[in-house]
């Protein structure tokens, strides 16, 4: 796992704030609908970004960015993550992480050190169906632990689910809802078939706006706020 991409500016999950994006390679899932397949399946085809070079660039940008988003792939697998988070905080910048939640020990370590300001947790499908998202076994206990860490409070977060037809239907939202009951915010994202890891997903027709609203209504029964994104 390594830093494989660096993007200058994007919106951070705070109103009116701007962030730089750092992309890490590797993942402990192989979701068929993944929109960054090269980071998961072929990281050797992408150039590495030395940690020192990324930090130098962030130092130069610190006057006009508010934070850094660490994404992937799955950033919690990268040995550089903890060091990068610490040094980004030393620059006075906010840190957001996008994660699938399958490495709660890393997340907990960062939270204890107060090196995270925002966590976006991607919930893929019904917990019982996570085995469909990888070529090896997936522990549901670690996912539950991550949810517990977020619900315990102390920082901002959002739960996110990309609503892939066949993988995310009402029964799957209900199963996830039981896992995250009492959470503050759950975002249901429209599925975009382009660039999917699996060719079969590229041919899928996204849920209609009406179907997405139905899914949102189900999710709203479990959390304080359920919203749609990408319609």
CATH topology: TIM Barrel
CATH homologous superfamily caption: Aldolase class I
Based on the coordinates given, report the CATH architecture: Alpha-Beta Barrel
**Highest-level CATH class:** Alpha Beta
Estimate the helix proportion, in percent: 25-40%
For the biggest β-sheet, the strand order reads 1-2-3-4-5-6-7-8
Structural class category? alpha/beta
Largest sheet composition = 8 strands, mixed
The value of Rg in angstroms is 17 Å
Low-confidence stretches: none
Q: What fraction strand?
A: 15-25%
Count of alpha/pi helices? 8
Number of strands: 8
Instruction: Give the total of domains.
Output: 1
Order of helices and strands: EEHHEHEHEHEHEHHE
**Ends apart, CA distance between termini:** 33 Å
Coarse morphology: globular
Structure write-up:
Its cofactor is [4Fe-4S] cluster. Keywords: 4Fe-4S, Iron, Iron-sulfur, Metal-binding, S-adenosyl-L-methionine. This is Anaerobic ribonucleoside-triphosphate reductase activating protein. The chain has 231 residues and is of the alpha/beta class. It has one domain (3-229): TIM Barrel. It has helices at residues 37-41, 51-61, 81-90, 104-112, 140-151, 170-180, 199-202, 209-220, and strands at 3-11, 18-24, 67-71, 94-99, 118-122, 156-163, 185-190, 225-229. Strands 1-2-3-4-5-6-7-8 form an 8-stranded mixed sheet, covered by helices on one side. A hairpin with a 6-residue loop joins strand 1 and strand 2 (18-24). Helix 6 (170-180) runs parallel beside helix 8. The model has no long low-confidence stretch (mean pLDDT 87).
């Amino acid at each position: 796992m390594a830093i494989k991409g660096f993007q200058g500016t994007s919106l951070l999950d705070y109103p009116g704030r701007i962030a730089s994006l750092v992309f890490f390679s590797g993942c402990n899932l192989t979701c068929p609908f993944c929109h960054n397949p090269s980071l998961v399946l072929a990281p050797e085809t992408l150039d590495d970004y030395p940690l020192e070079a990324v930090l130098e660039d962030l130092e130069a940008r610190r006057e006009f960015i508010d934070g850094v988003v660490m994404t992937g792939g799955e950033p919690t697998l990268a040995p550089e993550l903890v060091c990068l988070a610490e040094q980004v905080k030393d620059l006075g910048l906010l840190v957001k992480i996008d994660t699938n939640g399958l490495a709660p020990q890393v997340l907990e370590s960062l939270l204890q050190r107060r090196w995270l300001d925002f966590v976006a947790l991607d919930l893929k499908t019904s917990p019982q169906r996570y085995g469909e998202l990888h070529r090896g076994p997936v522990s549901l206990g670690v996912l539950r632990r991550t949810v517990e860490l977020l619900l315990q409070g102390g920082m901002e977060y959002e739960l996110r689910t990309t609503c892939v037809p066949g993988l995310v239907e009402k029964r799957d939202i209900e199963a996830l809802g039981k896992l995250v009951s009492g959470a503050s915010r759950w975002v249901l994202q429209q599925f975009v078939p382009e660039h999917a890891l699996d060719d079969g997903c590229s041919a899928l027709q996204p849920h209609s706006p009406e179907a997405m609203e139905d899914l949102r209504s189900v999710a709203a029964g479990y959390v304080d706020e359920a919203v749609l994104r990408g319609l």
